[in-house]
């Protein structure tokens, strides 16, 4: 039994960042987390997946080592080792958060919390003990989301043949064949990883193209690259039947009006996440949900119950760690009574870390068309960029969509080397309402990948130099 | 040992204070705790007390002066101590103290050149420097002819960003002409005679700042009233019976009543100028006219001085010229209050958008036969619904309501318009 100013339920990126900031603002803070600190992001998402993608990237790069004058002997791939390394990275990051908690005097209450009346949380600890904690100022729900599988399509997760990304992250070895169902960011990243480790990968997407939320040009560029590397990309494919056996799964797909069968060792379900809103006492404390199953919040992240806030995946889409982190920071400032800058939900970058990487901000060209905006497009290929050539990574492009009249950067879509880093120039530009002219005025160092951004901007203004 | 007297933060939110009155004259002995001066904060009038013993050697700011918190406003020292260095140091450090000691302070500044200062953002005091704005906002403002300085920014630190410019532009016709209207032709206004500039009191500043934060550049509220026009209808019929020379429209009668009421209520006949409010002693009535090109607001100058016939003639002429696009800039700039009438289009009631820097606009609905209860019996009367949009930075609810009360008396007793 302890009293805090604020209790965060859930120690993922939203909750732990919020907790640290709240502590820095002078509040006493408790965080209830049953697993490790850092949540899905650190343990089962962003971090371990990126560690595996480094392995896959290295494997792909080594295939070309000889061209760089570096001869390596036979390359052997061991997914188990890559997996263990990714777990180590996750653990280190989680320990890092623990250290930050200690440094900032945030208390980690290890257990599962259920909300009760009067801003209390009943916590059942790992050893079965029960204790109640009280928050004087606020309770913040950041319980996140989980993979949910596609039971309606016959793909009930079974941890052996029908697996989630959580399961894929702890596989001891790469399967011989794998169908990845859902070609969003998660699906594309795992397709990339397992392809590099020698798995025969089929990437299945019901929408007409992979990465359906990205610009059409980005989808096409990644699909081209994947196909070149031997990933079977089936977009516009409807899953009409699935039969999971002991050693494999048989899928029936409708592609282009034709039915086709597919037998694979494993199916990775990379579509659909469910919010963790059950069994935490929401109804009892009058926290209402939206029709989509998220916790209903206003622009101050307040739920329908007084003194209870929600942040991160449970508080609504997009389900992105950096969106949750920002909500964590903001909620801490709100609770501490500080001024806060409202979150600009229209300016949250999207990054997919497969190879080539994909990053975007703002509107796609299709969305600009639908909104009947008067826009101009500028595009620059990495194949014309000096630095990309030196690295031998010339796939992809920078695409800038700008307002025809005022030069506002309506959207930016990047595919290629390190574009998940390059995108931030455009995020900062949009956040500060810089137009293409301000980007052009800024001198970009040579030779850098960033020059491709400057050139795409120039192209949108009709004065590209290097292509 | 000399003690500096600072403008202290006398309320938690105080950023600056106005020294209303020095209680201690220069040269008088003071002891720690003595009340040196009265200071008006954003909330109330507070006492500024001495923090040391000695003689109040120097008052560094004059009564009526506003100074930011932290400004040295005086020096307490021993009678024979040399305080020259202290005084010159304080003077150099306090350029931010602005003299707003009275209406005459602005008399010297020609109206046309008076800068219109944007209310800065939440954390920053009102600044007279160049307006902070994003590159995109500047580009949009330039293209749409909006004066950035007249827009309150909602970005970080009060920066004017895209949505602020868009909001100003979507103010419609009103905002589109705002840059033109924001400066009065110097030929029609004589400071101190035709208008009075009143420096903002701290409470006015707080109201302006808080309400702008809440609802946008112009914190507008609306007052709706229903007037009984039966007598005005009768009067118009009687006048028309006298011959063509006496034919006037209802709109003319309303314009006359509004102008007359405005003359009696300078508190709603005003311009918001960012750092002060200009109350007009003359009534220049804007009347919104729909043209094929959009809304334009020609002005009937000194409308309160004109008889019904003259007003009727002028309003008809201005409307015709507006539709023919023959208005000169002088004819659509300088209004102090506006009226917009959609009654002829059978709109029962609506709200109009304030034409800044004006602080109010009256939206006139249609004259309708309405069953009402008079002396306990239901009877059919000619009723008119009007809605006044008020800029809350200048007009408080009760003030707007009092103006409408007078307007009601005049329109319900149109004989008053003759006097």
Strand content of chain B: 25-35%
Query: SSE string of chain B, helix = H, strand = E?
Result: EEEEEEEEHEHHHHEHEHHEEEEEEHEEEH
SS-based structural class of chain B?
alpha+beta
Largest interface chains and counts: A-B, 12 and 12 residues
Question: Strands of the biggest beta sheet of chain A: in what spatial order?
Answer: 1-2-3-4-5
Give me the Rg of chain B, rounded. 25 Å
- Could you report the average pLDDT of chain A, rounded to the nearest whole number? 95
Total DSSP helices of chain B? 10
Topology:
The complex is a heterodimer of chains A (467) and B (419).
Chain A: E1 2-9, H1 13-24, E2 29-33, H2 39-44, H3 46-62, H4 79-103, E3 106-116, E4 120-125, E5 130-141, E6 145-147, E7 162-163, H5 165-168, E8 177-181, H6 185-196, E9 200-205, H7 216-228, E10 232-235, E11 237-244, E12 249-255, E13 258-264, E14 266-269, E15 273-275, E16 308-310, H8 321-335, E17 350-352, E18 357-362, H9 365-370, E19 375-381, H10 386-391, E20 397-403, E21 409-416, H11 419-431, H12 436-441, H13 451-460
Parallel strand pairs in A: 1-2, 1-5, 2-3, 5-16, 7-14, 8-9, 8-14, 9-10
Antiparallel strand pairs in A: 3-4, 4-5, 6-15, 11-12, 12-13, 17-18, 18-21, 19-20, 20-21
Chain B: E1 3-6, E2 16-22, E3 29-30, E4 35-40, E5 45-49, E6 54-59, E7 65-68, E8 72-77, H1 84-93, E9 98-99, H2 135-144, H3 162-169, H4 173-176, H5 178-181, E10 195-199, H6 202-215, E11 220-228, H7 230-241, H8 250-264, E12 270-272, E13 276-280, E14 285-287, E15 289-291, E16 294-296, E17 299-300, H9 308-323, E18 337-341, E19 360-374, E20 377-391, H10 397-412
Parallel strand pairs in B: 14-18, 18-19
Antiparallel strand pairs in B: 1-8, 2-4, 2-7, 3-6, 4-5, 6-8, 7-9, 10-13, 11-20, 12-13, 14-17, 15-16, 19-20
Helix pairs in contact in B: 2-3, 8-9, 8-10
